[in-house]
Amino acid sequence: MNTLQITVVGAGVMGKGIAYSCAVSGHKVYLNDKNEEVLAKSKSDIEELLNSSFEKGFLQKDVYENAKENLKFETDLTVAAKDADLVIEAVLEKMDLKISIFQQLDKICKPEAILATNTSTMSPTEIGAQTSRPDKVVAMHFFNPVHKMKLVEVIRGLETSDETVQVAKDVSTSLNKQAVEVNEFPGFVTSRMNCLIGNEAMNLLMEGVASAEDIDKAMKLGLNHPMGPLELADLVGLDTRLRNMEYLYQTLGEKYRPCPLLIKYVKAGRLGKKSGSGFYDYN
């Protein structure tokens, strides 16, 4: 597909991964975050990944150099988004925060721009309804780490147009990923399944059925999962997983009630890999 101007809003783990993948695929990218320290850290991390990928031969010289030229980092949302063909929001899984950003983008972006939310559970219909362009609002659920994971869930809201869905699929293909189209329902496909598996693994640990290591080993060797569910929860972030579980519990009912051990760990600040400890110790 043609080169697009893409703006990624939110420079956390997912945002910087999406920005990197878009840049190495030839798109022009603004990475936006109002927090200067977060943006500076993401800039450093992306440059380190670019350099490492080039040195190891994963990126050709022309791709490496173009990616560095394609990337810009900006704290002002208006500057970052006013010329965007596609905006991908990648902030915390908080509906009021997402809606606030989409209302701002609706005023800033050109009328034909598509607005996508990178969410694992939340409703593009609800988000799109707060804008003047619900037909151009879609969810694109990327997976962590973005530069390695090959799937993008493209979630169609009630008013999302066929054209918008196709653009989201085409962009996913341009990033060397495969898209699956999903009709909106809480949790989509992967999060509904993954949250259930992870929550049951936490219950097993809490009940003393097996250690974290043996639960994960059983899932990897017995069911051919590439990562154990507790390892994965630590990677995602236990606070993020808890927000997802709370949303699914609210919308889908009792079977998604968060494990008490997950709640306890989050209260204790054991958030997984990013905090240094979760179900495993990373210090």
Automatic annotation (TrEMBL):
Residues 187-282 form the 3-hydroxyacyl-CoA dehydrogenase C-terminal domain. Pathway: Lipid metabolism; butanoate metabolism. Signal peptide: none annotated. It comes from the Bacteria. Keywords: Oxidoreductase. Residues 5-184 form the 3-hydroxyacyl-CoA dehydrogenase NAD binding domain. InterPro entries: 3-OHacyl-CoA_DH, 3-OHacyl-CoA_DH_NAD-bd, 3HC_DH_C, 6-PGluconate_DH-like_C_sf, 6PGD_dom2, NAD(P)-bd_dom_sf. Belongs to the 3-hydroxyacyl-CoA dehydrogenase family. This is 3-hydroxyacyl-CoA dehydrogenase. It comes from Sporosarcina siberiensis.
